[in-house]
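User: Show me an example of a complex going from sequences to structure tokens.

Assistant: Sure. Here are the input components:
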Amino acid sequence: MRFLLVEDNSELSASVAARLRLDGHAVDAALTLADAEECLAVATYDLILLDIMLPDGDGRDFLARHRRAERETPVIVMTARSSVSDRVDALDTGADDYITKPFDFAELEARCRAVLRRRGGAAQTARQFADVSFDPLAATLVVQGEARDLRSREVRLMELLLGAQGRIMSKEHLVDRLFSFSEPVSDNAIEVYVGRLRKKLQGSRARIETVRGLGYRLIEAG
Amino acid sequence: MAVSLRVRLIWQLLALAAVLALGLYLAVRIGAERASEATLDAVLGAAAQGMAEEMRSEEGGVVIDVPPGTFSMLAAMGEERIFYRVDVGGMTVTGYGDLPLPAVPPTALAPVFYSVPFRDADVRVAAVARSIRLDGVATKALVLLGQTREGQDQIAERLGNRAAALGLAVFLVAIPLSLLVARGLTRPIDRLAEAVGRRGPRDLRPVRHPAPAELQPFVGALNTFIGRLRGTLSQTETFIAEAAHHIRTPLAVMRNDAELALRHSGEEMTRARLRGLIRSADDAARSAGQLLDHATVLYRADQAERAPLDLAQLTRAVADRLAPAAEMKDIDLRLTIEAPLPAEGDAVLVEAALRNIIDNAIKYSDADSLVEIIARAAGGKAEITVADRGRGLSGLTHDRLKRRFLRGANVGDVAGSGLGLTIVEEATTAMGGQFTLSPREGGGTCAILSLPLSLS
């Protein structure tokens, strides 16, 4: 997906952009509202991540202009404020959602998915692996013409394994990505989700292989 | 409180009316007495003068022909007794020799009047002097004519009664008049007071109501204070927002970088440290958020802003908002919402309460579980139930959990500030509602938020 990130704190902007790029997204970073307007003039984005307090204006005014111009790109407001009226404000001016800094990237991804799902999906999101079609937005796997619904963590696990492109993902990495850091996780939690995803993949040529002592990888059975 | 202006004004106007009525009574009474006395004196004086003029000397004596008109004129004044005395050359020649003489002897024909007690009555006397030629010698003659004034006293009494009636009437008329005047005078004040009183506690616009010149200084002072309060409040809000911004942005950088480092690091020791760092950042962010929320709720609870709102819609919005957080743990939120649930209150407070309740339910529930959210009307109240299959209350009572910074014994592994339930409790109380937390049958917790519904 292609993101426009509007955030004036350059450190935060760099780290959010790096994090999104790591997940394979394209990110254009704008430090001011003027930069953002320039980016929007030359490119189309799947999602805009917008800070509220910017050096050359209020993000909400930008949002209002954006909506008046009838641009359809969904906007998620990143706010550092936490007062409730601000949140209501942001949604009233046409933001699709908001997320409070600091945020968990898994939560940001979940919110992006929810927004895109509500908007009827940007572009084609289904990805192909072996004989399986995987649509993270719709949360479905299509195996031999049969659509199978996935739970949220199964979607994320599938995305992680697909993103690794055949490399081994260690258990620890998967735990870090799948669970919130403030949540207790049992040792066999990952095995539970791998087991579930294997069940959903049954009948296809896609396999989740256990590499003893190292982790898991997604392979295509010969 | 000081006596009301209107009451003071009424009392003062009535006192003024009483003084006026008394003055009127006295003026009428004294004036009438003076007028009747002057009339009677004129008649008495004329009679005395007539007698004096008719006096003439004859051989060896003085002759007085009292003209018949004189006494009939006096008789016309009522049943009065008449006394006279004629002195010639210092000797009483006729009449009552003991009728007292005037203090100042009269000169020429101008009569002198005086009142003296005589024969058990108050007698008004007119004294006239003239000189008379007696045996060729000019001798001074003095004519005194006295008359009782019983009839006049009766007239005076009647007049006095009328004057009193007049005074009373004036006073009685003054009562409604002073009420009217007082009301008319205090009306601008009442209107201004009403206009100020009608304003909501959050209404910080300056008072623009027309006020009489005398009240302008007060309205001016009020507007100055309102302006200052508005300035202070917006400064506080800006300060809170700025503080949040300055705390959260570096926390976000820290958290993101830690997460990035975690992705790149393969060493288990470093990874454990990074996880701890992320947890701490989350804790700090959460605590900052809850403290600000708490401050917002306390501040708004004082303001008690009331606006119509639909609790059904609000519950749905809060649940939708938290759905991605639930989804991350594969927790389903099942909504059973009866619509609409009209209520009156501050949406911000309700939102804060609902968000904390649902957030708690998600936080303390295991993955793959179900959180039920039911909003319905029950006995004139809106009842919003949030039931989870989480770890429950571990035997702690609701009352203890509501306390600030107190957390359950079974939640050490979950980030939290211990302020959530305090926020819920304070927001609910400010809305005139009730919040209960109880163990759910079959495991978990059942939180019920009960808020009054609008009557219409």
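The lines above are the inputs; the final block is the predicted structure for all two components together. Chain B has a mean pLDDT of 84.
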